Amino acid sequence: MLDNTRESRRPRRRLSLTASGRELAPAISLRRTFREFWPDTRGLRRLFVAGAFFAVLAALCEVAAIRLFGHITDEVLTTKQLAAFWAPAFAWLGLAAIAGATSFAGSYLTALGAERFLLTLRDRVFAHLQTLAPDFSENRRLGDLMARLTDDIEAIEELVGSGLVKAFTTVVSVIFFAGAAFFIRWDLALLTMALIPAFLVVSKVFAGRFRTAAARERASNGAMNSVLEEGLANQPLVQAYNRQEAESRRLHREGGRWLRANMSQAWLSGLYGPAVQVIETVCLIVILGFGAWEITAGRLTLGGLLAFAAYLALLYPAVQGLGEMALTVSQAAAGADRVIELLRGRPTVTDAPGAVAVGRSRGLVSFEKVGFAYPGRGRPALQELSFSAVPGQVVVLTGPSGAGKSTIAKLLLRFYEPGAGRILLDGVDIRGLTRRSLRENVTVLHQETLLFSGSVRDNIAYGRPGASLEEIIGAAEAAGVHDFVKLLPQGYDTPVGQRGRLLSGGQRQRIAIARAILRDAPVLVLDEPMTGLDEGTVEQVMRPLRRLMAGRTTLLITHDLRHVPEGARMVHVDPVPRVDRVRLKRVGFQPHTARLSAPP
Ligand SMILES: Nc1ncnc2c1ncn2[C@@H]1O[C@H](COP(=O)(O)OP(=O)(O)OP(=O)(O)O)[C@@H](O)[C@H]1O
């Protein structure tokens, strides 16, 4: 029978995990899983229908071939009439060729539908994650998200794509093989069919347990994936702190949990096979005994009995396949739960109805009594913060660690909405602007320089897709990148390595400045741009930075006041004081405000 699901084409074990490692995602019903993912099969249903059609044709050919086999036994082997052999033999050969071709077409079309479904669904989940605040991904383990976007999505495909084709073709095959058996001897067929419910009862008993085991396997597998990802990504830290053995032990511990979860699955699968086989053997013995009786009484031919047994030999695996499908569905549903959980994540900020797409702004930024608390955090990160910045001006946001300085950048980009007060761009409340157009106007240089693993040129061009090579080189020259790029083995095409690790900190920072120059947004937010750079490198970075800041509105977040440009305005951001909330209500809280002071 046709087995064209992805499950049959890849290893059974999959990596998957949840936010907290072994924590299981909530179980969501099968119906809700279909409601969520069925729309993703739009445009692919014709492929699945064609795949099922060819698979059914292949099954029909098998039915006819067995009929010919019975005919050859009775008309050629029993009667020893060799002349009667050739016609059915050639017909059998023809059927085998058709069965082969239709089986291939069925598998191919179903696989095509399955792969396209994966492409669509992965794109959808990834696009959804892009609409969420970056903290959504940052608060989760990367390995977990990776597993959900790969293995769990495949599990869903097995449920609503190729899984459906398999279910349909299996049911049709069962009907064909059972029908053919009935055609030979209805009473004998009825006798053997009576045992079919036993297969279904066994699979039902196993399915529930299998689902729990599968969910546990996915979660523990995911936890192991996270340990692997973290251990490899933080290798310099691991080795510098001599934590290799500890990391290996951690991996071994998670691997052990995964092993146990897998073993409980293997235990169930291992038990399921023999349980089904016992029922199957009982059926065959009953048929052979009854068949022998009927042949002796002259009511059944040998060809009839052999064809009957051949139909049953195909029927039972098909029935067993139906039962196993319940197990596959259980496993797939465990993955679906985890993807649905991601899709339920709601963006913290959306465009307001009637939001305006602003063009290039002048760059006038104002914070007016802005207050904000991160979701789930009782204590505000910012309270009554007010300042403004005009084009050509550098406003230095300084204050102790945890005072909320980086939060200012997140609010300006509208990753979050302030709980109180408002933020204005050119005098317009940014809540009335589309996020896309707002972000076109703001460039942030992060504390940790963020680079992709492409070439130097790709990383600079990220600032403005479609920029010409001349523009890229112009930005690189202004940022002091050109000098060191000339010395790299492949110039601008040199790969920068994962997160730019093949470059020095200063070189990475200058590439980020070139990217910002190319982007040419009127508002610039520099979040601790000198972190981790030595004095010599700071000088190399400061020059292009000054060029970048010229004529723009710059918010410079820094602890280090040594490199504050002349004429900059200081805004001290003080941490929101810890106040007993009950007392705060009774006494009335005097909020702190940002203090403005003259340049140093
Ligand atoms: N995603 C988040 N979820 C919940 N709380 C957060 C989140 N990000 C920051 N915080 C909290 O908000 C407060 C302000 O954080 P923020 O990063 O803005 O401080 P900062 O002044 O930039 O600190 P530093 O100078 O050390 O970078 C801190 O108490 C921090 O723990």
From TrEMBL:
<dbReference type="InterPro" id="IPR036640">
    <property type="entry name" value="ABC1_TM_sf"/>
</dbReference>
<dbReference type="InterPro" id="IPR017871">
    <property type="entry name" value="ABC_transporter-like_CS"/>
</dbReference>
<protein>
    <submittedName>
        <fullName>ABC transporter ATP-binding protein</fullName>
    </submittedName>
</protein>
<feature type="transmembrane region" description="Helical">
    <location>
        <begin position="266"/>
        <end position="293"/>
    </location>
</feature>
<keyword id="KW-0472">Membrane</keyword>
<dbReference type="InterPro" id="IPR011527">
    <property type="entry name" value="ABC1_TM_dom"/>
</dbReference>
<dbReference type="InterPro" id="IPR003439">
    <property type="entry name" value="ABC_transporter-like_ATP-bd"/>
</dbReference>
<feature type="transmembrane region" description="Helical">
    <location>
        <begin position="190"/>
        <end position="207"/>
    </location>
</feature>
<dbReference type="InterPro" id="IPR003593">
    <property type="entry name" value="AAA+_ATPase"/>
</dbReference>
<dbReference type="Pfam" id="PF00005">
    <property type="entry name" value="ABC_tran"/>
</dbReference>
<dbReference type="InterPro" id="IPR027417">
    <property type="entry name" value="P-loop_NTPase"/>
</dbReference>
<dbReference type="GO" id="GO:0005524">
    <property type="term" value="F:ATP binding"/>
</dbReference>
<dbReference type="InterPro" id="IPR039421">
    <property type="entry name" value="Type_1_exporter"/>
</dbReference>
<keyword id="KW-0547">Nucleotide-binding</keyword>
<feature type="transmembrane region" description="Helical">
    <location>
        <begin position="89"/>
        <end position="114"/>
    </location>
</feature>
<dbReference type="Pfam" id="PF00664">
    <property type="entry name" value="ABC_membrane"/>
</dbReference>
<feature type="domain" description="ABC transporter">
    <location>
        <begin position="365"/>
        <end position="600"/>
    </location>
</feature>
<feature type="transmembrane region" description="Helical">
    <location>
        <begin position="47"/>
        <end position="69"/>
    </location>
</feature>
<feature type="transmembrane region" description="Helical">
    <location>
        <begin position="299"/>
        <end position="319"/>
    </location>
</feature>
<keyword id="KW-0067">ATP-binding</keyword>
<keyword id="KW-0812">Transmembrane</keyword>
<feature type="transmembrane region" description="Helical">
    <location>
        <begin position="164"/>
        <end position="184"/>
    </location>
</feature>
<feature type="domain" description="ABC transmembrane type-1">
    <location>
        <begin position="49"/>
        <end position="331"/>
    </location>
</feature>
<keyword id="KW-1133">Transmembrane helix</keyword>
